[in-house]
Amino acid sequence: MDIDYSCYLLNQKGPKPIIVESTDSEVVNSAKRSQNQNNYISVLKKAIFGNNRQKWVLQFSSRPLRKRDSPESFRCLSDVWPVKPRSKPLLKNPSIILDLPDIQDHLDCSSPLDWAATGYIATVYENEVHFWHPEGRRMEATYTSMRVGKCLKWNRQGNLLAFALEYPHCKYATWSIQLQKVKTVFFCSYAFCEITAIEWTKSNEIITGCSQGCLRTGKISTGHMMYPHVQLDGTISCVKLSSNENFCAVVVKNNFLIRLLRYPQWTAHYDINCQEIGKKISISWHPWREGLLAVGQAQGVSIWNVNNLTVVGHIVCYSIDAIAFNPVSAELLISAHNNLPDNTTRVYLTVMKNCEKAVDEVVHCNGREPFLYWDTTGTKLAVVGSHESLCIWDFFGTSSNGINKKTKRSRLTSDPFETMKLIGPTIR
């Protein structure tokens, strides 16, 4: 047996393996499949060469081994952002699937749904807000004479919900869980605009962006909106504060611009111009590294250090619909899609631990998924897409599952949408 030649074959990259195309009703965990292949190669090498493989190779090879980089000169790609990655793939099938009819009417909105710290999921349906809780707690839908707009957001404590209104001068309102009714209504002198983005501060102030490009704050104690802090040219589609609330990122939909502002001074910091005109822009702040911002566009994700205004990393992938840092592990979740020649769309939910290494991935062909939400523990992921469903995943595996399992859970197939008829509750 030629040991040197065998080692050469094992270490060479051979032809790409044949990939079995998945059908529309199949969910493929490609990360787990890749891990199994790597484990097989490792076991095979150990069986042939023993525990001290390099020593045997040196006896038969004249090529010197490459000198290892010293710890001082080596810099891991994960240094782009602090992360606590998983050691193996953990995503399986959704634990709960909820029906979301007519959600396609809201796919262009900044946030037609949100998950509160108290566990309630709120969503807009037929111009009213409907609620669902994983433990079965019931709360009646709002009654505003069908005047709720297309944007809502829970506060940090999860006891107040802000949602847009479609009255001429009543721009948005706050809903109290304790009172189960509207607590405060915010008025504005402008009649020809609508609230398109909402963000809460830690001090329970509300930041809103509108279709006329006005960025304002509102105080619950007064019920009035402040004068515009910033006037932008275009519809504001997203407003997000950084982890320590030193920066505010504002996405302007029409101009495909991200305006970075100092908060609470509201002074201009920097403008990020996005090149892919007409494509969705998704942003996510790192959960604990202040000033680290991920920007998702059509052809990839850029990691920005807002403190010194530099791009510290880039991820190349398919057309991106949404990105989100996990609040516990800081793994970056990417929802992307690829349009196939047969007019179908393949969707990828990919978990990245750095700019090049994917540690988990789920692939299916059931429709694009442009909205990602975390529960208050950061262990559960809610995904909303054009398939008119809300899928709740155990992001760190079933061991982190705090939602009551149903007796029919063992009957679930590999296709989450085939199992929908096995699960009773719906959000609407």
Strand content: 35-45%
- Weakly predicted, low-confidence segments: 16-25, 53-78, 401-415, 419-426
Question: Might you state the CATH topology name?
Answer: Methylamine Dehydrogenase, Chain H
Q: Any idea how many domains?
A: 1
Please work out how many helical segments DSSP would assign.
3
Question: What is the string of SSEs from the N terminus onward?
Answer: HHHEEEEEEEEEEEEEEEEEEEEEEEEEEE
Strand order of the largest sheet: 1-27-26-25
Helix content: under 10%
Q: For this structure, what is the CATH homologous superfamily?
A: YVTN repeat-like/Quinoprotein amine dehydrogenase
- Mean pLDDT, all residues: 81
Q: Tell me which CATH architecture applies here.
A: 7 Propeller
Counting helices, strands and paired strands, the structural category is: mainly beta
Instruction: State Rg.
Output: 24 Å
CATH class: Mainly Beta
Could you give the distance between the termini? 67 Å
How many runs of DSSP E, i.e. beta strands? 27
Query: Looking at the structure, what is the overall shape?
Result: globular
The major pleated sheet works out as: 4 strands, antiparallel
Describe the protein's topology.
Elements: H1 3-11, H2 30-49, H3 53-60, E1 96-99, E2 113-115, E3 121-125, E4 128-132, E5 148-154, E6 160-165, E7 170-176, E8 181-187, E9 195-200, E10 206-210, E11 214-218, E12 230-231, E13 236-241, E14 247-252, E15 257-262, E16 267-273, E17 282-285, E18 292-297, E19 300-305, E20 310-316, E21 319-325, E22 332-339, E23 345-352, E24 358-364, E25 371-374, E26 380-384, E27 389-394
Antiparallel strand pairs: 1-27, 2-3, 3-4, 5-6, 6-7, 7-8, 9-10, 10-11, 11-12, 13-14, 14-15, 15-16, 17-18, 18-19, 19-20, 21-22, 22-23, 23-24, 25-26, 26-27
